[in-house]
What we know:
A: 7% helix, B: 5 helices, disordered N terminus
Amino acid sequence: MRPATALGAVCAALALASATSARAQTALHGFVQGNYALRAADADCPPTFDCGVMRAEERLQLKLDHASSDGRAGALARVDLFHDALRAEAGVDVRELSADVNLGRFSARLGRQVVTWGLGELLFINDVFPKDWVAFLTGAPLEYLKLGNDALRLGIYPPFANAEVVVSPVFQSDQVPSGSPLFFFDPMPALTDRTTERPAVELENMPVAGRLYRSVGRFEMALYASRGFYGTPAVRPDDPAAPGRLILFHPRLATYGASLQGPALGGVLSLEGGYYESLQDRSGTDPGIENSQARGLLAYQLQPWTDGSLSVQYYVEAMMQHDAYRASLPPGLPSRDRYRHVTSVRLRQLGLHQTLQLGLFALLSPSDQDLYLNPSVRYQVTDELWAEVGGNVFSGKEPSTFFGQFEKNSHVYVTARYAF
Amino acid sequence: MLKRAGVVMALAAGVLPGQQVRAQEPPSAGTILAKSQQAFFYAGSDMKARVLMTLTSASGQKRVRELTMLRRNEATEGEQKYFMYFHQPADVKGMTFLVVKYPRKDDDRWLFVPAINMVKRLAARDASQSFVGSDFTYEDVSGRDLEADDHTLLREERVGGRDCYVIESVARSPAQYKRKLAWIDRTSFLPVKEEYYDAKDELFRTFTADEVADVGGVPTVTQRTMANRKTGHTTTVVFTDVAYGLGIEADIFSERYLREPPRKWVQ
């Protein structure tokens, strides 16, 4: 949906909600934020690169929330006005813009909205919704990793289970690194002529995702399925014999998964699994397209002492057609292992009446031999104002692995936000 | 006939004075505390309140937490569900929090973060953890298992114009305090005052019920203060719009409504 269409839907809902109510409520909130990141890695920067500064941005977020007096209808607009000194541009970033109805056993939300499913921390299996990896890699607050999705979300809540379906009329890709200020692994750096193909806007290309969930005792179970496209693009040369141009495109993807979460040994145990079916390369013979994969996550979270929390994760992804992938991989390109293992640990300590937060998140892949570290300190100066200083450190043995490729993007960031 | 009536009256006369004597004997400490928990944490089949917490540091800096609290007693004895919707501060507005409290078991807690539309289940082993950075702990908000302490009725005395039982509770299981003294109103069974002593047996926290109101026949503490005597930090909590027995639906306390806060209840 285009913003204009969404805006129309919101206005219509607002009008409807206001017309039916004497006590309709509208609230305006938001924040002003400064967010800066400085590269903290040796990088041999080409002249086209902004080397030292990776982010220099001010934002004003306005959040307008409206609800009808009976609470059955509402609308939400969350809009950022930003100034990006790095690109010398200012603009409007519509984070969310939606209208909703909520009627007993049924609810619906139409418009741009953020949807988050699944149990992993930075390890996504059944969350197939758009992500902004550029924001993540340049020191933006973590909430900016999730992008709003232009969609219709329907919720149905019969007594035995809950069901949600998210339909997006137009496929929205992830934001992935494409140049300054980010370094990343490029398998064909010589081919600088590139073009991106997006799935045509037609019925059969509408991404659809569903989730069925319920509680059983103190455990929560969910089943997931989706049909759409890979968020990060695949590549193919225009002419395999004499490539002159590289085409970036989003291959078809179907996912199936399940999750389970509940109490165990004084903490919270999480299990999640999924199967990624690479619909355009089931045989695994196209090295430009992702293999079908099985993904699994085991996580455990506990509170070891007052105001402290500790969580650990183990994640694995397995390429289903690894032999075919190896056989078809052009010479000279780095080969991926059949299994990618990732472990992570997060430590968080609150202090000073929970106004001070010390955090350390470490993600390490023994198979890729790479890692990601995020130490952070956040202080809530007043109810309105907080500031955070931290680092995003990437390191790896090989320049082609998931985190290793970002080694030169390691940075320190500072964010200050005044909320109103 | 008259004779029989006389016998009945004599029997009644014989029984009643005895009962009166027994009524004057104070109930056991355990019974008083059980009644106190019932009056303080379990009143009504459900409850709704707008809660304004003011946190004041020793230097006088104030922070505010404002939330709508919905509470429902479950059919299982002692089990309760709490749904909280945060109005203030602005940074957490729209955040929702669900707590399921079980007797003699850790709570289940879920937090909903609106900016990323994510529900996160939280490990909740430590009931003496501060609630939203205030001087109140989770236990102070939803009650501590009576079996966790040994209780003794020390005396009865008058505090703030109320006749009170004074009960000492010595922690049997790990707690923030070594012992606690509680002054419990003989009539309403609401706590009037509490003193918490640390491992060195030094007073470190005091609770006071500053205002009690009658809400539809239910005596309710509408203003309370917890003061940390060692740090000088205090938290005052004011309840407004309190109501009981509203028929809050069971399914409000679910992931669905964490994500879609029930405006009917939280506005």
